Each structure stands twice: as C-alpha cells, then as structure tokens.
Amino acid sequence: QVQLVESGGGLVQSGGSLRLSCAASGLTFSRYAMGWFRQAPGKERDFVASLNWVGTGYADSVKGRFTISRDNAKNTLYLQMNSLKPEDTAVYYCAASVGNGKWSYWGPGTQVTVSS
How far is CA 45 from the centre of its chain? Predict the structure, then answer.
C-alpha cells in the first residue's frame, strides 16, 4: 500500500522559511517523479514544483524562493520554502507519478500559514 505523508507545515511570519517533508512508503521511490501542489481556501489545487529524471520544474509564483529536492535513500521528498508570503498560505500536498503525466498517489496534506 502506497503512503505519502507530509510534515513540516506550520505558522510562519512573512519573509520566513519552512521546509516540508514527504515520507513515502510502499513504492520504489526512486522510480517515481515527485511533485508538490497546494490548495488555498476556496481555490483549486495548483502545481508548485516537480522533480523527475530530467530535472525540476516550478510554478512562476515560487521560482527563486522554493527548492524541491529528494533523498532516495530515505524515501523522502522535500520542499524548502524561503521568503514566504501571505499568498503562499495553503494546504501543501506531495504526489507521486510514474512519469505518464498522471499523479497517481497523494498525501493528506500539511497546512502552511504565512502571517503578514
């Protein structure tokens, strides 16, 4: 059974930093492309960042501030978030894909709140 579990969310002031983690189990982690998404209240879930065998990709809104990385030995995905803004407030989700453009597995999410 595949499980993705996010952690590291919380309340931070504008300009602060957080590092999110996503612990994966039940899959061969290194064979999956991984991504981060977020959903703000009343809005759709949006792409944040992805990491696959080719490289990384970021939403324009987070470029230069967020960094996605992974540790295959620990089956863990990370999202380093710097210079946080109130508009970054959302529930953040990690997801896994075999590389076919579909995100097959999702975690339950972790709340990030940025105060102004």
Answer: 12
* pLDDT digit string, tens, across residues 42-96: 999 999 999 998 999 999 999 999 999 999 999 999 999 999 999 999 999 999 9
Residue 20 identity? L
Is 27 within 8 Å of 11 (Cβ atoms)?
Answer: no
User: How many residues are recorded in the chain?
Assistant: 116
How do residues 14-29 score in pLDDT, each as one tens digit?
A: 999 999 999 999 999 9
CA nearest neighbour of 46 among 14, 89, 104: 89
Helix (H), strand (E), coil (C) string for the chain = CCEEEEECCEEEECCCCEEEEEEEECCCHHHCEEEEEEECCCCCEEEEEEECCCCEEECCCCCCCEEEEEECCCCEEEEEECCCCHHHCEEEEEEEECCCCCCCEECCCEEEEEEC
